[in-house]
Amino acid sequence: MLCIAMFALALPALAQDPVFTAVTDKQNVAVGDAFNVKFTIENGRGDITPPNFSDFNVVFGPSKSSNFQIINGRQTSNMTLSYTLRAKAEGKYTIGPAVAKVDSKLLKSEALEINVVKGSAQSSQSSRSNANRGQKPPADKNLIVRMLLSKNKVYQGEGIVITFELLSRYNNIDLGETSFPSLNGFWSEDIKSGQTSWEPGYEYIDRVPYRKAILRQKLLFPQRPGNIEIDPFKISAQVNRSFFNAGTKVTAQSYAQNIEVLPLPGGAPESFNGAVGEYTFSGRAGQTEIQANDAIDLTLDVKGKGNLKLVKAPPIEFPNDFEVYDPELKDRISISGGGMNGSRTYEYLVIPRYPGKYEIPELAFTHFSPSKKEYVTQTAGPFKVEVRGEDGIVPTGERSGIARSRVESLRSDIRYIVTDPEMLMPAGSIFFRSFGYYLLTVGPLLFLTGFILFHRKRDAILGDVRTIRRKKAHSVAKKRLAAAKKAMDKGDSTTFYAEIFNAVYGFLSDKLGAEKATLTKPVIRAKLAEN
After folding, report:
1. Cα–Cα 20 to 30 A to 304, which of 29, 251, 370, 434?
2. Are strands 105-108 and 153-155 parallel, antiparallel or unpaired?
């Protein structure tokens, strides 16, 4: 009893001074969107007087919670007052400080700034409600999985963020098998994939608090128009497991989601090469007054938001007398919940071989802007180049479109005639340097070299995956069409359309030697025209 009394007396000495804070889970919200505000007293308990919420609708609250712990002799106690608010109108608002009375002390929290923008979140929630209408609700209300889309209606090639969420009311949960849907018809990029952790705070559904964790986030770019349905994703978990209890196995399944993919409008300019997003295009040339055989650096930049990994530089018609090397590609791309942002840079090395005045014509880059719902064309150039050179360094005469190299006199291209009779001897009088001599000397080496090159060529062909894919394209496509026929006979329309899509795009991918994800309609037309 004495030990217990001494321990109880020591607790206040180990306790820390109280701290009063205010936090919100969102600082940027849409009109009609709900967000949480929490006022917390750390290392103490007391009464909290909330600020005025007249600029918002109080959806839920106040809700009180408290926590008390003793760890390694140190006492901690927290008390939280929570509200769920909904924004009324656009603008920038300030939620004033709350006041807490702890013992005899008055503490004030910091003010919170809330930026309310035009209500898009409410419409997206309404779209999700329509998509979920008529589907079976979750069996276990203590465990919910959700598949949320940033948009339900987009243009072909426009980015969508898909989020897989887990909401739980169980004290402890161990995730088991997780089955994510296959995202056929999309180019996908990972945003969040890895270790799952719970987010701070709670999310309220029908005034019931849930802990929330984001299991995975992906950025999707639809590659074909039409309605694309994303199958539900499923998880299994062991809940309420302890040292004496193996726990209970539970399962949960999300709703399916349907995305309406709009085709790009007709009338695209010839300079359109499949880029969809919000971009800026610029070009610059290095020094344009140079000597023949010096280099010019030509740089093209595409910056903005969209699938930058599929953006291509506009074709350039260089003058015939320019030697041009393949461009160096530099990507500075970031992927987040806001989409794919950054820049793609093409750097060309160009070497004029002849003096004169030249012009690299104007370059046009066209992209489709989903926000403007129209094609936008931007230009760079033209770039004028003046090439200087001294007389006799380069030959004159008729020019052609063939890339040239600089011509220099070697002064030994023609051997002089031997006029000394003593140095002459009858042809074929000696074996050295005769035809037979060279044949026996060089012949085996040539044969061995040819033999090695033949086998290397043969091994290269056998190891060329692209060539093998091209040869087997017909047989693979027939198998996929056979599978589609079986699905059609069974009435399985989902599998039928998936197999048809895989057969057509797989055949084109194998034949054209391109990745399936990169085969948009403009790319297919261009590659078929090339072949």
Report:
1. 29
2. unpaired
